[in-house]
Design goal:
The protein has helices at about 5-25, 30-35, 40-45, 55-65, 70, and strands at about 90, 100-110, 115-120, 135-140, 145-150, 150-155, 160-165, 170-175, 180-190. It is of the alpha+beta class.
């Protein structure tokens, strides 16, 4: 992602968060507290100076009672979109330094659909639990991944394996072995 593309994404995301916050009648301080981020960080995000991680984006959206896809810039769904290898908007999986970086392949709030590609190194910080409305569809292309679920049995996935699970079940990923994991992630949200 070029600096210009990053600036475009962070600016569009910041404007969308600010517009959603104002439409909800929420103060910046109130939204920051409800989403578990600092008010200065939220201010930077709204001004396009910082970009939130996926985990933070989900918390902000939950605090606003909207889908995170509503906040992401979307392509015109009536157009054909090609995302070439190595292209697409990059987003961190969490606010933690060293978190995995995903590529946004598609964000279509009108259909409640988000598609990401992740290449996760064994050293990436994945020590974050996720929980959100809707369902997740995950397909492992390379490497081995373990999904841990809160109060449920975990699942080990190898290349070619798929899993579909409710996003409301608290979950996290763990890379197994020393090889990177490449996966496709589809998030389907209620519309």
């Amino acid at each position: 992602m070029t600096v210009a593309e990053f600036d475009d994404l962070s600016g569009a995301l910041g404007r969308a968060i600010r517009a959603a916050r104002l439409e909800a009648g929420e103060s910046m301080r109130g939204l920051a507290a409800r989403s578990g981020v600092s008010q200065p960080f939220l201010s930077e995000v709204e001004r396009g100076q910082s970009i939130p991680s996926i985990a933070t984006l989900y918390r902000i959206a939950a605090a606003l009672d909207i889908s995170p896809a509503v906040l992401l810039p979307s392509e015109d769904v009536h157009e054909v979109t090609v995302v070439r290898a190595g292209q697409g908007k990059l987003v961190p999986s969490s606010d933690r330094p060293g978190s995995a970086i995903g590529r946004v392949i598609l964000s279509d709030p009108s259909r409640g659909l988000e598609i990401y590609e992740y290449v996760i190194d064994p050293d990436d910080d994945l020590d974050v639990w996720y929980e959100h409305p809707g369902h997740k569809v995950l397909h492992v292309l390379e490497g081995r991944l373990q999904l841990r679920f809160e109060r449920r049995r975990g699942v080990r996935l190898a290349p070619g394996d798929w899993i579909v699970h409710p996003g409301a079940i608290s979950h996290r990923w763990i890379v197994e072995g020393s090889e990177p994991v490449r996966l496709e992630l589809v998030v389907i949200r209620p519309t």
